[in-house]
Each structure stands twice: as structure tokens, then as C-alpha cells.
Specification:
The structure holds two protein chains of two kinds.
Chain A: E1 5-13, E2 16-23, E3 46-48, E4 57-59, E5 61-62, E6 74-75, H1 81-85, H2 90-94, E7 107-113, E8 115-118, E9 122-124, E10 141-143, H3 144-151, E11 172-179, H4 194-208, E12 213-218, H5 228-239, E13 242-245, E14 248-253, E15 259-265, E16 270-275, E17 278-283, E18 285-287, H6 291-298, E19 323-325, H7 335-363
Parallel strand pairs in A: 8-19, 10-17, 11-12, 11-17, 12-13
Antiparallel strand pairs in A: 1-2, 2-7, 3-4, 5-6, 9-18, 14-15, 15-16
Chain B: E1 4-8, H1 12-23, E2 27-31, E3 46-47, E4 52-53
Parallel strand pairs in B: 1-2
Antiparallel strand pairs in B: 3-4
The chains are: A alpha/beta, B alpha+beta.
């Protein structure tokens, strides 16, 4: 496993590929560190916690997330005072195992492989450009992934829906669907998972707090998987989730920081507004940042959104023999789909490398 | 041909592909950009349609 590493180049050679991989310096020895956390206590450096979607700060030396593998600390060179100014080193003094090494350098590895599988996944569309939704201005307008961190017991609020502006428990929550998705200006495609995700989020809110009320503002609910329709119904019947058909036009804010959602109820044919305590934007999911560059490097075709193109007759195969793709990097899919695509890609890659081994052996 | 495979991306898709290959006895390099594997899935609280924990 090569965590904290990035692919920088690929060359072809007979019978396979050579990948150039940069193993970034963690400044912590992976073999020695046991993530005890002694180093964290006095670290003065601060940075946004990217795992928690910026909802809290972390220290310059950090564990990416609590159950993460490899379970070792990493020093963020952008936030570490020693690495920037040459003074501090408190973590090194605190670490009695001697795991911290400020002299560590990036390592360039050269890997000879017979096949490559691309599984670079997704990134979340940044909704700041959609100024009418107020993301970034109205504190209690957050993204779906931020919500996941809030409702998570290991997240910044310990699983309580304390809204960002005043840490008050949010009891009425509006979910705005298709933020950036199915929008000709941004991502014209449907991100496929957000409808189910918002329904799930609304159900979780009620599980955490029996007084919670949720409204889901949707274009049309696209719940096409196995058991999904039943799930949608169950959310309404057992969890009191309210579905409103209509796209949200604008989100404002009152003096107490409550977002006000302006929308058209297309069933009633009326323009309405609704005051809530928090808004969750179901943002589009995009191909991960850097996927275009990676595709170019591997000479694999990608569409205009950066999703890897695969063959119609062999859905795991790219246009390059020996390079396969699976999961969200090919296009929107949910977790079970990603898992089955991955098994398919693994199978295709295995037969690719083993067939040639077999052929070589029979020649010999 | 080298009977080894590189998997780029250590989210749910990459982890699954790497595990399947390893079970077939093929050496796998699982390459992840972030400090630990798990990807976006690890950031989720529960997953639909069963409301199971994501990790």
C-alpha cells in the first residue's frame, strides 16, 4: 500500500507499464509511528481539517481520520511551523519513539506492472459560484458532505446537528437537490446518488432528534436502485420527510441566521418561501480533481467532464490495452455499483496479466 | 509480462479491486493520494438504502 503517494508518469515497455510514483514525505516514519497522539498535544500549527470538510481546525501534525489506514501521523508542510520557519519541533520532543523526521524527502518510486486500474473516484462540486444559494456567505448553508461530518459521531460536533453560525441544534432542515447537477452551466449530468443521499440524511436527522423536520426540494426524485422506491416511501411515512417538487430559486437569511428558501412549488403552481434553521445543498459529484491530467498521462480517453471513457462491450476496459477503470471515475454510481465494477476490473486486469504469464511459460 | 497490478485510488472502488486481485495471488500496488485510504466513503456517516455504517 502506497498512501500519500501520487502517480507522476507512465511509460510503456514490453509486456506492461512502468509507473513513476511520488511518495510524499510525511515527516513521520510509518514503521515507527503508532498514532498514540502524544505529538498532537502541543502542536501550535493549525490548518483546516479537510476530512471534516473544513468544519473544524486540525493541527499541523495530524491523523487524517481516526480509523484511517495506515494509522500514522502526517505533518502538513503548509501548516508546520518548523518546516516553514525552522523553529518549533515540539512534536519531535514529545515523540518518545523517535518517529518524527523533519529531514524526510519525497521518494520517487518506479513500479513495473502488467496492468493498471484507475479508481480515482469523485470530488464534490464547489457551490460557491451559485451565488443565489448563498454558500460561503450564509453560514447555515452547508454541503451534503459537510452534513455527513456533522451527523457522524466522530465528526466535529460528535454527531449532533449543531449549525455552524451559533452551534444551536438545527430542527428544521431543507435539502436542495441538483446543486450543480443537471445544470447546463455546470454539470449537465445527473450525479445519481444525491436523491437517495438526502433522503438518508433526512432520516438520520429524525433518528437523532424526534422533533426534527426535513424538507427535500427536488427536481424529480431519481431513486432507481433496488429497494430505493420503498426507502423513499418509508422516509415519508415513518420519518415524516416532506418532499417538495420544485427547484429552489434563491436562499436568503434573516437576522438570526436562519436561511429562507425561496422556491416554486410546481405541484401547487405557487411561488413560496420557507424559513428553516439549516440548508443542505446536495452538490453535484464530479470526477476527481486531477483526473483529466491522469487520463492524459495514461493516454486514456475521458469525456468533457473528466470521467474516464470505457468500452461499451467491456465496461471495465479503457481504450488502452491493460488499463482498466472502475467506480465513480467512470461516471456517477453508488457504492454497491462501484464495488461490482471494481471486482469486474480486478478480474479483467488479472486475466490480462496472467494470460501473458501463461503464454510466456508455454513458449519457454 | 509482470504479474503485478497498480490500482490508482484507494477509495471503495480501489480497495475492492486491490483485495480481489490479492485474493487471486496477484501482487498489487494500491496508490492513494491522501494520507490514508478510504476515500469519500470513509467520510460518509451511514449509507443508503440500509442505513449501515460506511466503515
Amino acid at each position: 500500500m502506497l498512501a500519500y503517494s501520487e502517480v507522476e508518469g507512465l511509460s510503456r515497455k514490453s509486456g506492461g507499464f512502468t509507473l513513476k510514483v511520488r511518495r510524499k514525505a510525511r515527516y513521520v516514519d510509518e514503521e515507527i509511528c503508532n498514532a498514540c497522539g502524544d505529538c498532537l498535544e502541543k502542536c501550535p500549527g493549525r490548518a483546516k481539517d479537510t476530512f471534516d470538510m473544513g468544519l473544524r481546525q486540525r493541527k499541523a501534525i495530524y491523523l487524517y481520520f481516526s480509523q484511517g489506514i495506515p494509522a500514522v501521523m502526517t505533518i502538513d508542510p503548509e501548516a508546520c511551523i518548523y518546516l516553514k520557519k525552522g523553529k518549533c519541533g515540539v512534536c519531535k520532543k514529545r515523540c518518545d519513539k523517535g518517529a518524527i523526521d523533519f529531514e524526510m524527502k519525497d521518494e520517487i518510486l518506479s513500479l513495473d506492472v502488467g496492468s493498471v486500474i484507475i479508481a480515482t473516484g469523485l470530488d464534490i462540486f464547489e457551490p460557491g459560484d451559485l451565488t443565489y444559494y448563498g454558500y460561503g456567505k450564509i453560514k447555515n448553508v452547508i454541503t451534503g458532505l459537510q452534513y455527513e461530518r456533522l451527523i457522524n459521531a466522530t465528526g466535529p460536533t460528535g454527531g449532533h446537528l449543531y449549525r455552524p453560525s451559533d452551534q444551536k441544534l438545527a430542527k428544521t432542515v431543507a435539502y436542495v437537490q441538483c446543486v450543480g447537477s443537471r445544470d447546463l452551466n455546470y454539470c449537465s449530468y445527473c450525479s445519481s446518488v444525491c436523491c437517495m443521499c438526502s433522503i438518508k440524511d433526512a432520516m438520520l436527522a429524525r433518528e437523532h432528534d424526534p422533533e426534527s423536520v426535513s424538507y427535500i426540494f427536488h427536481t424529480d426524485l431519481r431513486n432507481v436502485g433496488k429497494g430505493f422506491q420503498k426507502y423513499e416511501k418509508r422516509a415519508a411515512e415513518e420519518y415524516g420527510v416532506q418532499y417538495v417538487r420544485g427547484r429552489v430559486a434563491e436562499i436568503g437569511e434573516d437576522d438570526e441566521g436562519n436561511p429562507i428558501v425561496l422556491y416554486e412549488d410546481t405541484r401547487q403552481r405557487k411561488v413560496e418561501s420557507l424559513k428553516v434553521e439549516m440548508v443542505v445543498l446536495a452538490t453535484a459529484a464530479t470526477a476527481s480533481r486531477g483526473s483529466r491530467e491522469l487520463a492524459k498521462m495514461l493516454r486514456v480517453k475521458a469525456d468533457k467532464y473528466g470521467f474516464i471513457t470505457t468500452r461499451n462491450d467491456q465496461p471495465a476496459d479503457t481504450n488502452v490495452k491493460g488499463i482498466f477503470a472502475c467506480g465513480f471515475c467512470k461516471g456517477p454510481c453508488d457504492i454497491p455499483e462501484a464495488v461490482s465494477q471494481s471486482s469486474a476490473a480486478a478480474q479483467r486486469a488479472a486475466s490480462h496479466v496472467l494470460r501473458s504469464v501463461g503464454a510466456g511459460a508455454s513458449k519457454a | 509480462m509482470v504479474p503485478k497490478v497498480a490500482v490508482i485510488g484507494g477509495g471503495i472502488a480501489g480497495i475492492q479491486a486491490a483485495l480481489d486481485l490479492a485474493e487471486m495471488g496477484i501482487e498489487v500496488f494500491l496508490i492513494e493520494k491522501k494520507p490514508s485510504i478510504g476515500g469519500v466513503m470513509a467520510q460518509l456517516d451511514k449509507t443508503f438504502p440500509t442505513n449501515d455504517c460506511s466503515i
